[in-house]
Amino acid sequence: MIPSIPVFILCGFLGAGKTTLLNYILYHQTTHKIAIIENEFGNIAIDTSFLSSSNTAIHITTLKNGCICCNSHAELEVSLKELLDQLDRKEVNFTQLIIECTGMADPSPILRTFLTHEIFSKRFDIKGTITIVDAINALYHFKHFNVTQAQIAMADLILLSKTDLSTELLEPLVNQIQHMNKVAPIYNLKHGQLDLKLLDELNFLSPKLSPNSSLFSCVPIIDDKISYDTKVNSFVIHRKQAFDADKLSRLINKILKVFEKQLIRYKGIFNIQHNPHRLIFQGVQQIYNSEWGEKWNNTEDRYSEIVFIGVKLPEEEFHYFFNKI
């Protein structure tokens, strides 16, 4: 069986620092051969000193360290298929894939491509979405560009750039980000330098909802009574009592139908009656799946925990729904 290829989706508004991070990863990682798909065709994003010549039709360029860069006007599916074809023909070699979104891109269509495509869902393994946030301009971006809110909502890891230039804005910014996405850990990104272990630990399907310790863990969690200038909100529902599987399924389907235009991202762990395994559930907008995870330990307290991220979701109603069944 061919092992699946880990995939990271990198997004962030214009000027946030995506290219700087990509160059740092390419220069400093030594374990993986990375393929990068760049949507910003025509721009020289990767350091040109790292490139070697290429005349392939889809602009797959071999880098001097063995990694490759793919620039294309084509749809994502075309680029992915070409990469896989060349990999299978042993014309290129890579063990990880990073997709760099344009600054104005919502990453959710990319996630849906991997989750729904028959081949890509098997050949690739989504590890998570990394969102870079410009600490100087983010509050302005949140107000005027809805896509920046979507980028925060979809994030599994959030990196703050330019924090050394905007210390007075740091606490309100972190609090607002936590309001929008309560589960993604937040780290400082200074000059594109990242602890590469964070990439190895990133897991899109991780049942762990509580953020890992991050650089900004000392910032107080926001007061939900404060009014934030964003449409996106998030909340976590906890419950110790086990769920009836049929009732839970009906509730989830009802939520997906009623709030189909508002849901952005959701994932969680469910404690199901008469089942020794935890149920792992996650979805992007209307595309979702569930699978049985590890067995509950006999000594641990079983629980359910799910996070919802969306546009003006009514938190109290959701708590009522889940407590009622």
Automatic annotation (TrEMBL):
It catalyses: GTP + H2O = GDP + phosphate + H(+). GO terms for molecular function: hydrolase activity; nucleotide binding. GO terms for cellular component: cytoplasm. InterPro entries: CobW-likC_sf, CobW-like_C, CobW/HypB/UreG_nucleotide-bd, P-loop_NTPase, Zinc-reg_GTPase_activator. Residues 73-100 form a coiled coil. It holds the Pfam family CobW_C. SMART domains: CobW_C. Residues 232-322 form the CobW C-terminal domain. The keyword Kinase does not apply. Keywords: Chaperone, Coiled coil, Hydrolase, Nucleotide-binding. Zinc chaperone that directly transfers zinc cofactor to target proteins, thereby activating them. Zinc is transferred from the CXCC motif in the GTPase domain to the zinc binding site in target proteins in a process requiring GTP hydrolysis. Belongs to the SIMIBI class G3E GTPase family. ZNG1 subfamily. This is GTP-binding protein YjiA. The lineage of its organism: Bacteria, Pseudomonadati, Pseudomonadota, Alphaproteobacteria, Acetobacterales.
